[in-house]
Please model this.
Amino acid sequence: MLNEEKVFKDPIHQYIYVQEQLIWRLINTKEFQRLRRIRQLGTTYFTFHGAEHSRFSHSLGVYEIARKIISQFSRNDFGKWSDEERLLVLVSALLHDIGHGPFSHSFEKIFSKNHEDWSKELILGDTEINKLLLQVDKQLPWSIVEVLNKKYPNPVINDLISSQLDADRMDYLLRDAYYTGVNYGTFEIERILRVLRPFGERLVVKESGMHSVEDYLMSRYQMYWQVYYHPVTRSAEILLKKIIARAKELYLNGYKFSYKFPMSTNLFKEKIEIRDYLALDDSFLYTTFYFWSQEKEPILADLASRFLNRRLFQYIEFQPEDQERLESIRELFRTHQLEERYYLELDSITSLTYDISSIFLLTAQEEIVDISTRSEIIASLMSRRKTEHKLFYPRDFLEDRGLLSSFRDIFNK
Model:
C-alpha cells in the first residue's frame, strides 16, 4: 500500500483513488503513459469536436468503477475476496485496453490483430508492465490474461471486466457522452453499482434495480446509433482504412516513398515487434499522413490530405442487393480513371452488434432469471434489428470532373 493515497481529479467520477503501490507504478510505466496519446473514440472528433479524451482517462475510469464495486462487495460481505483477487480485479481493469493502437478501434479494423491480443502481448512480453507484475507474483501476468480471455477460475471477476454490464462499458458510455456533449449515454451508475451482487458463479443485479439497467441499455443503444455509428465518423474511418491500404499496396509494389520514417514501412510487415508497436500513436500517424500527403503518388497524397483537412467522403442510402446500380457506378468510376477501390465504399451496420441478454436478475426468492424475461423494454430491444447501408463517395471529385449529374442519373433511373 502507498503511504498516502494518490488522487486523480476526473470529470466523470469526480475523484479516482489509488492506494496500491502496484497500481501507481503501473500507471507510470511508459506503456500506460502511451495511452495519453491515443484518442478513446478514434475518428469521432471529426463529428463531435469535444471527443478528444484518451484511452488513459478511460482506463483510469474503468479501474475506479472496479474499485468501487470491489469495495462495495467487501463492505457488504458479498462473497470471500482475498487480497490477491482484489488486486487482480484492479490491475485487470486498469490494463484491459493497454494494447490499443492509434485511433483506437479504427486502427485495429485495418490490421488483422485486435487490441485484446496486443494487450496480452504487452502484459506477458518484455515490458515495464510485465516486470512490475512479476515482482508481485510470477503468476500475476498469466492471471490477468486469463481474466481478459474470460477464463479465470472465478467467473465473477471475468464478468466485472468483460460482460454486458461491466466496468468498461459503464465508464465509456458516461465518458463518451460527456466529451461528445450528448445526453444519450447518461444513466444512474451509482444505483447500478449498489444493486450489483456476486451470486454463485455469476454477477447479478437485484431485481429492484432492473429499471436502472433498462436505462443503461437504452443509453447504450442510443450511443451506438447517434455517436459510434454516426455516418461522418464512419466516413473518416473508411478514409483512414483506404490511406493505409493504398500505402501498403505501394510498399508491396516497391514504391520509393519520398519521406521515410523508421516505423512507416513496419506498419506493413506481417509481424510487428512490441517495441515498434509501442511507437505507434495518434501523433505518429498524423505526422506520417502529413508526409504522405506530399508524395508524388496522387491517390495516396489525396487520401492523406483528405484526412488531415477533413475532406471526407459524402454518402447516400444504398441497398446492397441493388447490384445493377452499383455496377453502373463502378463503371462510371472506371471509365473516368477513378480508382473505385479507394473512392467507393458500401458500408453496412446493424444494431445487433452486441448481445444485450446475459444480464441476470436476482429475485426476492433468490432465483436467477435473464433480464429479458422480466423487462418488456429489453425484450423489445432484442427483437428489433435495425440495419443501415450507405454508399460513400467523393462528391468533390465528381463535381470537379463534371460527373455529379451522371452519378445522380444512375440513382434516378
